[in-house]
Amino acid sequence: MSGEMQTVVAILVMALVTYLTRVGGFWLMILVPEGGFVRRWLHHLPGAVIIAIVAPMALEGGWGAPVAIAATVTMAMLRRSALIALFGAVALVAVLRQVI
Amino acid sequence: MTDVPADRSPQPTSPMLATFTRDGFARGFRMATPLALSGVLFSVAFGVLAREAGLPLGSTILMSATVFAGASQMAALDLWSAAPPILVLALATFAINVRHVVMGAALRPWFSKLPSATAHFSLWFMTDANWAMSMAEHRKGERDAAILVGSGVALWLGWVSGGAVGHLVGAALGDPRVFAADVVVPAFFALMLTPLWPGLARAWPWAIAAGVAVAAHTVLPGYWHVIVGGLAGSLAAAWAERRTA
Predict the structure, then answer these.
(1) pLDDT of A79-90, one tens digit each?
(2) How far B3 CA lies from chain A's nearest CA (Å)?
């Protein structure tokens, strides 16, 4: 296989593997009976997964991420639009980094 | 995008209803646009690194367009060579992207109401950010599954074009920390958490998920901490409800 060919094949294999992870959970759930426990589990899954993504991020790389998270959540609770909450928090961190 | 009524039963208020419309696509696209724009800095960084790793422009675009999963693509660059090791790349890609399995499972009750081809097409665009966004909107009453595709397409456009720009421009871009671009992603995910907040009395599974994820992050490679933490918190919550039910 030429190098160029192998590059394209490698990329397409990566794409296939990634697509299989995207549909894999959807397929696996066919095997799981949609009973009460599974329904409750799926109901709690999004919050738990997102917090599992966020928590290590919040503890890495200094105070920027925790400040941005606190500011975003505060503004979201004050019923600002999601867009204002997000950009407000990011702007706050950008300004604080200039000042501090 | 054609309108595909997935559920023909006359129950417009049914919690199990799923639709797939142009409107939903546009809503998702609009909501993800700010994140797609800020994410461009990350995609530009990928383009710069891809060029340094020896990936030609065409291959860089092909990878971003077909794989569309940033962390696994960054990891692949570390393994890249003139003759890339296909099996090693496949395994590394799987290890990083296997978190999608858990996300896809959570979409099942909603997306199984769509025609199978529509569901499989939509899942191609599923990535962390638009999955979180779609789940948050679903909790608020959204039933239009095209929101995942619309937001996915917005992120995809930013990801592919940013990668191409980074490859062309190279490293002459300065430090993204000056614009606080590095905090956009954690802030975005925190924002997606707010509609999912279960109340203080029921928040302890979140503490479990967070604690387990942080602990797992220090010992496990890739994104396994997302799976381990997510499963720990959600299973604990479901188990506790079974005991009280």
Answers:
(1) 777 778 888 898
(2) 22
A10 located within any domain: yes
For residue A20, the enclosing domain spans 1-31
Distance from CA of B82 to the nearest CA of A (A): 6
Residue entry with tokens 């890609």 = B93
| A84 in contact with B, Cβ within 8 Å | no
All residues at 6 or more sequence positions from B215 whose CB lies less than 8 Å from its CB, including other chains: none
Q: How high is the ipTM of this complex?
A: 0.83
A13-63 confidence digits (pLDDT tens): 999 999 999 999 999 998 888 778 888 888 899 999 999 989 998 998 789
In a domain, A12, yes or no: yes
A-to-B residue pairs, Cβ atoms closer than 8 angstroms: 271
